[in-house]
Amino acid sequence: MTAAMPCPVCAGPIGIHVVRPEFTCHHCGWVLRANVGDAFRRATVVGVAAVLIALGLLLLLPFPTASVVDVWLRGGAGLGMIFATITYRTTLALTPARPLRAKARRSV
Fold it and tell me: Is the pLDDT of residue 107 over 60?
């Protein structure tokens, strides 16, 4: 899994760390929009659900509750983070908004 997404206009790589609700592709100069808020909310819900489902499944095992909770505390957060990251990466969408307008030069 790479840490880059393709630009919808020029197919150049855009790093995930660069994606904002509205930003500019450094290859083609187009202003792009991303559904960062929606993707983050979905990823949070999926991550928390994965952690809670893991706890529920672990509690069904015939082990003492203290050991189950200990295993859950150690591995549940990692499991939730993995599911949240996968969800964020798959639901994040880039759409072209407009070409970058050249800034007007002021004459002095």
Answer: no
pTM of the model: 0.77
Distance between CA atoms of 28 and 38, rounded to whole angstroms? Answer: 26
Nearest CA among 98, 93, 67, 86 for reference residue 14 = 93
* Structure-token pair, residue 21: 């609700």
Rounded Cα distance between 36 and 28, Å, is 21
Say what percent of the chain tops pLDDT 70: 90
Q: pLDDT tens digits, residue range 19-65?
A: 999 999 888 888 999 999 999 999 999 999 999 999 999 889 898 98
Which tokens in the block code for residue 41?
């909310």
Can you tell me the distance from the alpha carbon of 106 to that of 12, in angstroms, rounded to the nearest whole number? 32
In angstroms, rounded to a whole number, what is the distance separating the alpha carbons of residues 74 and 72? 5
Q: 93 and 19 in contact (C-beta within 8 Å)?
A: no
The answer to whether residues 20 and 82 touch, using CB atoms and an 8 Å cutoff, is: no
61 residue type, one letter: L
**Beta-bridge mates of residue 14:** 5
